[in-house]
From TrEMBL:
<comment type="similarity">
    <text>Belongs to the alanine or glycine:cation symporter (AGCS) (TC 2.A.25) family.</text>
</comment>
<keyword id="KW-0812">Transmembrane</keyword>
<keyword id="KW-0472">Membrane</keyword>
<keyword id="KW-0813">Transport</keyword>
<dbReference type="Pfam" id="PF01235">
    <property type="entry name" value="Na_Ala_symp"/>
</dbReference>
<keyword id="KW-1003">Cell membrane</keyword>
<keyword id="KW-0769">Symport</keyword>
<dbReference type="GO" id="GO:0005283">
    <property type="term" value="F:amino acid:sodium symporter activity"/>
</dbReference>
<feature type="transmembrane region" description="Helical">
    <location>
        <begin position="345"/>
        <end position="373"/>
    </location>
</feature>
<feature type="transmembrane region" description="Helical">
    <location>
        <begin position="211"/>
        <end position="231"/>
    </location>
</feature>
<dbReference type="InterPro" id="IPR001463">
    <property type="entry name" value="Na/Ala_symport"/>
</dbReference>
<feature type="transmembrane region" description="Helical">
    <location>
        <begin position="306"/>
        <end position="325"/>
    </location>
</feature>
<feature type="transmembrane region" description="Helical">
    <location>
        <begin position="394"/>
        <end position="414"/>
    </location>
</feature>
<keyword id="KW-1133">Transmembrane helix</keyword>
<feature type="transmembrane region" description="Helical">
    <location>
        <begin position="237"/>
        <end position="264"/>
    </location>
</feature>
<feature type="transmembrane region" description="Helical">
    <location>
        <begin position="180"/>
        <end position="199"/>
    </location>
</feature>
<feature type="transmembrane region" description="Helical">
    <location>
        <begin position="12"/>
        <end position="32"/>
    </location>
</feature>
Length: 461
């Protein structure tokens, strides 16, 4: 029976994450880029500047930076480290370019989904901000049933992709590098998670504001050190990545590309998985931000995709490709395993390399646990009310405790499938509300200090 269920879920997972989903997501990225007048040109300048600015007089629960780091906590994860290696292993070095392009165009979708999350957010009677695709669908399009589906998909996905698989990654690396029994890791992570999530969004944002910059800077420094060590292969690597993104064949260093089909498939898929643009998760955190108008926070949120994919994933890709070119034997013997490939790359740094990678995986995975706990809470509250919060938190913590000692194959497949299914209602909201997104953008993009006086409706549980 279990084998039959696993087979069905695996087939369904392959379908929902197939070419149709990739085309739908990437197509939305390109469409929103055009509709917003290439909003990416404002992200690096205005967006980054706003992300470190405070707007305490604006309505919201946490700062713009707090909302951004909470979203980044859930977004920057093991996919940035191991996922890029897997993309190279399956799609060849050319997958790095397609992963990067997914991030560049995905900025527009992250901007759009965050804008409508703030635009259609609501406030609870005790003053907490609620928002996301479910509210955009119900308030903006009168499609509450579709909003309910999104909330259910996302709520249940949080247990797997946000919790169980992340704890398992931490437990595995702690056992392999530090010799710590996996069951101890599960208990420790469960306790640390409980301390944070019972404090709500302010507690989660407070931890993420400190953890995310540290973990990202620490990991990036490690990448820079490796690139300095491989400096004479950087420009050749860029050439190989661009060449094998469009053509099959071999290149210097024993690198082999599978052609444009495989490069696009695995590069785009890993890019989408990494930055979550279009999935509808990050806007849930954006809706809690203190912001004067929807465009301000949308710009801040869009920087998340910039940092996650355009910067971090690109650096990881260059690290891996230059390492393979410098050590051709790696490609022949190890490139079929993304995790091993990443370990070998960081192993080039004497003593500190494995430590950087270990701390990177632990901090990236733990931050994802916290970010997705918040996403799950908001979704559960949408379809079950505030009475569902305590049971959700208890179950989330229990999953964290047992994750290292249970088989996760089926859990991963189910969560991954739900993760894809939650994207569909979110993309419906983005596409059908695109005129509203364009109108709000024109209204505020050149006057970001203007205050939106539209009252935020108060809802009853």
């Amino acid at each position: 029976m279990l084998k039959a269920i696993s087979g069905f879920v695996e087939t369904l997972n392959g379908w929902v994450w197939g070419w149709a989903m990739i085309i739908l997501l990437f197509g939305t990225h390109v469409f929103m880029t055009v509709r917003t007048g290439f909003i990416q040109r404002h992200t690096v300048g205005k967006g980054i500047k706003l992300s470190v600015s405070k707007d305490p007089d604006a309505e919201g629960e946490v700062s713009q930076f707090g909302a951004l780091t909470t979203a980044l906590a859930a977004t920057i994860g093991t996919g940035n480290i191991i996922g890029v290696g897997t993309a190279i292993a399956l799609g060849g070095p050319g997958a790095v370019l397609w992963c990067w392009l997914t991030g560049v165009f995905g900025i527009a979708t992250k901007y759009a989904e965050s804008l409508i999350a703030v635009m259609y957010r609501v406030k609870t009677e005790d003053g907490r901000m609620q928002g996301g695709a479910m509210y955009a669908l119900s308030r903006g399009l009168n499609m509450k049933w579709l909003g309910m589906l999104f909330a259910i998909f996302a709520g249940f996905a949080s247990f797997g992709i946000g919790c169980a698989t992340q704890v398992n990654a931490i437990a595995t690396v702690c056992k392999e590098t530090l010799g710590v029994p996996t069951w101890i890791v599960g208990i420790v992570i469960a306790i640390l998670t409980a301390i944070v999530i019972f404090g709500g969004i302010k507690s989660i944002a407070n931890v993420c504001e400190k953890l995310v910059p540290f973990m990202a800077i620490f990991y990036v420094i490690g990448c820079i050190v490796i690139l300095v060590m491989n400096y004479d292969f950087i420009f050749p690597a860029i050439g190989v990545i661009c060449k094998l993104a469009f053509t099959p064949g071999a290149a210097a260093g024993g690198l082999v590309g599978g052609g444009i089909q495989y490069a696009i498939r695995f590069g785009v898929a890993r890019g989408l998985f990494s930055n979550e643009s279009g999935l509808g998760s990050a806007p849930i955190a954006a809706a809690a931000a203190q912001t004067r108008n929807p465009v301000r926070q949308a710009l801040v949120s869009s920087t998340g995709t910039f940092w996650d994919t355009v910067v971090v994933c690109l650096m990881t890709g260059l690290v891996l490709v230059t390492t393979i070119m410098k050590n051709p034997a790696i490609n022949a013997d190890q490139v079929d395993n993304g995790g091993v490939l990443t370990s070998l790359a960081f192993g080039q740094i004497p003593v500190l390399g494995p430590i950087i990678l270990t701390l990177g995986i632990i901090s990236f995975a733990y931050s994802t646990i916290l970010g997705w706990a918040y996403y799950g809470e908001r979704c559960v509250e949408y379809f079950a009310g505030s009475k569902g919060l305590i049971p959700y938190r208890i179950l989330y913590i229990a999953v964290a405790a047992i994750a290292p000692v249970v088989a996760l194959d089926l859990v991963w497949l189910i969560a991954d499938t739900l993760n894809a299914l939650m994207a569909i209602p979110n993309l419906v909201a983005i596409l059908l509300l695109s005129n509203k997104i364009v109108a709000e953008t024109k209204k505020y993009i050149n006057n970001l200090d203007a205050k939106d006086d539209t009252p935020v409706p108060v809802i009853k549980d």
